[in-house]
Amino acid sequence: MKIITIGREYGSGGRTIGKLVAQKLGIPYYDRELVDETAKHSGLAVEAIEENDQVVTRSFLYDLAIGTSYGYVNHAGAHMDLNTQVFLAQRDVILKFAESPCVIVGRCADYILRDRQDVLRIFIYADKKSRLQRIVEEYGEDASKAEKLLAQSDKRRARHYEEFTDSIWGARRNYDMLINSGMLGIEKTAELICAFAKAE
Amino acid sequence: MKIITIGREYGSGGRTIGKLVAQKLGIPYYDRELVDETAKHSGLAVEAIEENDQVVTRSFLYDLAIGTSYGYVNHAGAHMDLNTQVFLAQRDVILKFAESPCVIVGRCADYILRDRQDVLRIFIYADKKSRLQRIVEEYGEDASKAEKLLAQSDKRRARHYEEFTDSIWGARRNYDMLINSGMLGIEKTAELICAFAKAE
Asked: With an 8 Å Cβ cutoff, are B176 and A183 in contact?
């Protein structure tokens, strides 16, 4: 396997696991780099790209706030909303990065690369208790807000995925392995993913 | 992990993978044995138990065909339909087998043992192409019927699971790992499951 994409639930440790997998396999890890590269490549604002990773808002709110489109034009020749522009610009960057082995976290990368045979598509989830613990202890969020954050984040990620793909976030069909990181913990989950990557 | 439960899509090779995992770990594998033991334990007919593993039919059809219940009585004192009797009798057998390490395939075992900490719950699926190929080449089914068989079987297994649990068949929350056997093949998928079982 050349490319590993990692979709993940908020609080599942997916980002840390992705970094570890990349380290262990000696290949680059792309996460924040995708935002910077997308900004450079497209001229879109970093803030707009970051925002897009989190939320799908109705496009007119963006149009209202930002004024006009950034130059991406759809098939009908109409200006596209900002979310779609960000998605397409980021897709270009993902396709470019995926020319050589790497780990890519989030951003519908599994969907964008779905027709390639050399991509291992992973989804990381965890039981609620492990997630809440991680959100509070490692991400430093307020315990009283953790449960709400978790529900909101799942909803946002699902909505974003479903807005830009014809599939459902976290459904097994989109992945080659889905794994509960609450069972083995960060380190051993990363090892298991590496074992899969090396097995083929 | 002491117990490994394996849910699986028809044609994913889940049964063969389960046997291999049991062999590799040197623990018993329960599949057909569950039917025989359930029959012995409950006095229910083997045919009824086999039927129940495949389909959920409206209970009155069974009542009509078989006449009366086999002695299981629910909390309200009413006679239960045959499917429920089979489910409960098989649950008793699963709980008994799960007193020592083993691999159990199908039969909602993941749900029945959901509160135990020493159970590794696996779900095996595969892409349609791999499944169709296995159904024809290994199970000897007619190629022209394979696609229909596959759809029917998924529907039946999902209906059976959802009839007797409060959850959805193949949804990640019910499992610790879901794995596409079409990616690595039977042998290496079994190895990966063993690696998970040994990792804790």
From this structure: yes
Of A172, A176, A195, the CB nearest to B195: A195
Report the chain B residue with the minimal C-alpha distance to residue A185: B200
The answer for A188, left when phi > 0, alpha when psi is -120 to 50, beta otherwise, is alpha
Question: If we measure between CA atoms, which residue out of A11, A10, A17, A16 comes closest to residue A177?
Answer: A17
CB-CB under 8 Å, A188 with B172: no
pLDDT at B67: 42
**How many angstroms from the chain centroid is the CA of residue B93?**
13
Which of the four pLDDT bands, split at 50, 70 and 90, describes residue A54? low
pLDDT in tens, B130-186: 999 999 998 888 999 999 999 998 898 898 888 888 889 999 999 999 999 999 999
Q: Are residues A199 and B184, on separate chains, in Cβ contact within 8 Å?
A: yes
Contact between A183 and B172 using a beta-carbon 8 Å cutoff? no
* pLDDT tens-digit readout, B6-42: 999 999 999 999 999 999 999 999 988 888 888 888 8
- With 0-12 / 13-18 / 19 or more C-beta atoms within 10 angstroms meaning exposed / middle / buried, residue A177 is buried
Q: Are A21 and A188 in contact (CB under 8 A)?
A: no
A190 Cβ contact partners less than 8 Å away, ≥ 6 residues apart: A17, A20, A21, A24
HSE at residue A63, side-chain half, CA atoms within 13 A, is 8
| Interface membership of B172 toward A (CB under 8 Å) | yes
Name chain A contacts of B118, Cβ cutoff 8 Å.
Answer: none
DSSP H or E segment with residue B29: strand B29-30
The model's pTM is 0.86
Cβ contact, residue pair A188, B175, below 8 Å = no
The per-residue DSSP string of B51-65 comes to: HHHH----HHHHHHH
Q: What is the ipTM of this complex?
A: 0.85
CB A6 within 8 A of CB A14: yes
**Chain A residues near residue B125 by CB distance under 8 angstroms:** 172-173
Q: Which residue has the tokens 């980021």?
A: A90
